[in-house]
Design a protein that fits this description.
Strand content: 15-25%
Helix content: 25-40%
Shape: globular
Number of strands: 6
Order of helices and strands: EHHEHEHEHEHEH
Radius of gyration: 16 Å
Number of helices: 7
């Protein structure tokens, strides 16, 4: 599944609707930023870390997902689709990248398919914490990030999708996902927009 990194797109390119997240009811989802996807994720790390730190400053809870397979029984269609090139639990490729700003109380959810809601407790935990909005970051833009965003929308969560803290195999796929999401599922943001919406200032990618 992993491939080369792609330059991020501005949210302005496809923005249709504009709204700021509500820090009182939002959660940040960091999707599958694992060693397997390191070549794809490293270029977006400054924006991703900025986004994580902004959310922490705003007391927005941070959730990480980790895609991994424990046996052929949980491969589903992915085994066929990717010709067996899957992320196996227990390998270094399955681990979250060490550069992430993770803390002991952050929730890490394991998943076996594109959606972070499928076969996990994500929805249950979000409901328990009275979360009404999710900010989606990570990889891959058009697969796990987009599928999770669509799932969140149909479950009744307001979705904010980061254009500069997500990445995928190429620019065409990245932009196509942004265009689809902006049309029917999500408000587009980037680190600067998020900073402005939460705190009224621009993000300099140097927040402590």
């Amino acid at each position: 599944m992993a491939s080369s990194p792609v330059k991020c797109s501005s949210y302005k390119k496809y923005e249709i609707r504009r709204r700021n997240p509500d820090r009182r009811s939002a959660a940040l989802l960091v999707i599958d930023v694992q060693n397997y996807f390191s070549s794809m994720a490293k270029p977006i790390l400054p924006s991703l870390l900025c986004t994580i730190r902004l959310c922490r400053r705003a007391s927005i809870p941070v959730f990480f997902t980790r895609h991994c397979h424990k046996s052929p029984a949980d491969h589903g269609m992915l085994g066929e689709w990717w010709n067996g090139d899957l992320i196996l639990d227990g390998t270094s490729e399955a681990e979250l990248m060490p550069d992430l700003d993770r803390r002991p109380d952050d929730v890490v959810l394991e998943k076996t398919t594109y959606s972070a809601f499928q076969g996990t407790r994500l929805e249950e935990i979000l409901r328990e914490r009275r979360v009404e909005e999710v900010i989606v970051t990570g990889v891959m833009t058009n697969l796990c990030c987009e599928t999770t965003s669509r799932g969140a929308f149909v479950k009744g969560f307001r979705v904010f999708f980061s254009t500069d803290a997500t990445a995928t195999a190429n620019e065409e796929l990245h932009d196509a996902a942004l265009k689809n999401l902006a049309y029917g599922f999500a408000y587009l943001v980037d680190c600067d927009r998020l900073q402005e919406g939460l705190f009224g200032m621009r993000c300099l990618h140097t927040l402590a």
